[in-house]
Amino acid sequence: MQFGVAIFDECHYLKSPNSQRTKALRPLATDIGRVLMLSGTPALSRPMELFSQLNMLDPKKWADVKDFGKR
Q: Which terminus has fewer CB within 10 Å in the chain: N or C?
């Protein structure tokens, strides 16, 4: 099947780039092109945990974890 949009609910579970869940969904997010991420969990304490999610949303803009960390 081909989908036009993917919705990842509880996306805070995708914060670790090494988790099986993130590894499974990354190719899906890349192939689809339109991804919505939903979470009710605030991400206030560690902005670095957002990198994996941002990278899945726009891998060109959020390509390098070191640049993100410096920023």
A: N
